[in-house]
C-alpha cells in the first residue's frame, strides 16, 4: 500500500475497536457536527458470519495513532474514514485501492459507500474512479421540546417491548421480509439481524418495540439510546401497512426519547424505501442528505 512516510497499514484487531470508533467519531464531528457511531455498532458488524477479522478491515497508523481505516461489510458495503488531520495525503486513495482488491478476492460484484452530500470533494473523487450514484439517504429529526402526545395503534394491535426469547425469531424474520421488498437489496441472514439487534452489546428487550396483532408480530422499531434516541430500524409487515402502525411505533419512540431527557429523536431512511413522506407527515424534517456511490467489480 502506497502510504505517506511514517504511516503503516495493518489488519485491525479487537484491541483496536475503541480507538477506531474514537477516530471515526472525530471525523463525524467535523463532517456532521454530531456523533453517529459507537462501540456496539462496530462490534455487531464484525460479529456477523462471513466477516474475516484477519482480512476484511485495515487501519492506517501514523506512529501509534490510527488515522484512517477501511472496512468491508457484507457483499457490497464499504466504509473508509480518514481523520481530518491526515486528509489530503493520499491515504484515502490507498485504502480505496486496497478495498477494491480485497472485495474482488472475496467474490463481491459491487462495492459502495454512502457519502455526505456536502463532501463534494469525496464524491468527485469516487466518480472519477468509477463509482456512480445509486440511491439517496436522509437523516431526519423529530423535535419534541415538550412531551409528545400518545398515538394509539389500530384496534387489535398492541405496541410493547419484545418478549425474549419467544418472539425473537418471528420479529427478526418480519424485519427481513419487510426490507426484502426494497429494490436492489441483498438478503440479510437472520443471524446478521440477530447480531445487529438482539445480540448487540447492551441490548435489553425495551430496545425492540413490537406491534402485535393477536399472536403475530406485524411491526417493530429498534431504538438505540446513545447521546440521542435513534430509531435504527422500523418496519411493518406488508399485510398491516397503511393502518397507522408505523406512526404508533414512532410515537412510542418519541415519548421514550422525551422521557429520557432528549429534545429530539432521529433516524435515517433512503430513496429505496419510499418512507420519507411518512416521516415528514408525522413532523420529522431532513437535516442531512447523502449519496450512495457504488462501483461494479
Q: Can you describe this structure?
A:
By secondary structure, the chain is of the alpha+beta class. It folds into 2 domains: 7-108, Gcn5-related N-acetyltransferase (GNAT) (Aminopeptidase); 146-262, Aminopeptidase, CATH 3.40.630.30. It has helices spanning 17-31, 39-46, 91-106, 120-128, 168-179, 190-196, 245-259, 276-281; strands spanning 7-11, 57-62, 65-73, 77-82, 110-116, 132-143, 157-161, 208-213, 216-225, 229-236, 264-270, 285-296. A hairpin with a 3-residue loop joins strand 3 and strand 4 (77-82). The longest helix is centred in the N-terminal third of the chain and has 16 residues, at 91-106. The protein is globular, with a radius of gyration of 20 Å. The mean pLDDT is 96.
Question: Which short descriptors sum up this protein?
Answer:
single chain; alpha+beta; Aminopeptidase; 2 domains; 8-stranded mixed beta sheet; 4-stranded antiparallel beta sheet; globular
Topology:
Blueprint: E1 7-11, H1 17-31, H2 39-46, E2 57-62, E3 65-73, E4 77-82, H3 91-106, E5 110-116, H4 120-128, E6 132-143, E7 157-161, H5 168-179, H6 190-196, E8 208-213, E9 216-225, E10 229-236, H7 245-259, E11 264-270, H8 276-281, E12 285-296
Parallel strand pairs: 10-11
Antiparallel strand pairs: 1-2, 2-3, 3-4, 5-12, 6-11, 6-12, 7-8, 8-9, 9-10
Amino acid at each position: 500500500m502506497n502510504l505517506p512516510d511514517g504511516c503503516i497499514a495493518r489488519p485491525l484487531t479487537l484491541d483496536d475497536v475503541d480507538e477506531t470508533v474514537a477516530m471515526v467519531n472525530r471525523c463525524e464531528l467535523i463532517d456532521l457536527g454530531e456523533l453517529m457511531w459507537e462501540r456496539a455498532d462496530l462490534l455487531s458488524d464484525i460479529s456477523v458470519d462471513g466477516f474475516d477479522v484477519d482480512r476484511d478491515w485495515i487501519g492506517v497508523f501514523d506512529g501509534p495513532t490510527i488515522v484512517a481505516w477501511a472496512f468491508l461489510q457484507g457483499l457490497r458495503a464499504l466504509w473508509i474514514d480518514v481523520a481530518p488531520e491526515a486528509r489530503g495525503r493520499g491515504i484515502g486513495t490507498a485504502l480505496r485501492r486496497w478495498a477494491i482488491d480485497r472485495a474482488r478476492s472475496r467474490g463481491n460484484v459491487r462495492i459502495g459507500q454512502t457519502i455526505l452530500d456536502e463532501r463534494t470533494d469525496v464524491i468527485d473523487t469516487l466518480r472519477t474512479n468509477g463509482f456512480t450514484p445509486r440511491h439517496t439517504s436522509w437523516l431526519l429529526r423529530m423535535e419534541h421540546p415538550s412531551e409528545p402526545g400518545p398515538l394509539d395503534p389500530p384496534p387489535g394491535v398492541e405496541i410493547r417491548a419484545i418478549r425474549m426469547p419467544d418472539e425473537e425469531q418471528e420479529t427478526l424474520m418480519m424485519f427481513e421480509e419487510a426490507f426484502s421488498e426494497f429494490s436492489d437489496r441483498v438478503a440479510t441472514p437472520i443471524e446478521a439481524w440477530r447480531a445487529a439487534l438482539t445480540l448487540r452489546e447492551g441490548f435489553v428487550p425495551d430496545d425492540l418495540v413490537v406491534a402485535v396483532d393477536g399472536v403475530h408480530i406485524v411491526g417493530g422499531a429498534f431504538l438505540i439510546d446513545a447521546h440521542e434516541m435513534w430509531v435504527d430500524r422500523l418496519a411493518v409487515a406488508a399485510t398491516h401497512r397503511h393502518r397507522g402502525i408505523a406512526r404508533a411505533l414512532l410515537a412510542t419512540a418519541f415519548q421514550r426519547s422525551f422521557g429520557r431527557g432528549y429534545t429530539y429523536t432521529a433516524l435515517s431512511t433512503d430513496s429505496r424505501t419510499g418512507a420519507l413522506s411518512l416521516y415528514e407527515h408525522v413532523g420529522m424534517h431532513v437535516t442531512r442528505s447523502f449519496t450512495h456511490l457504488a462501483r461494479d467489480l
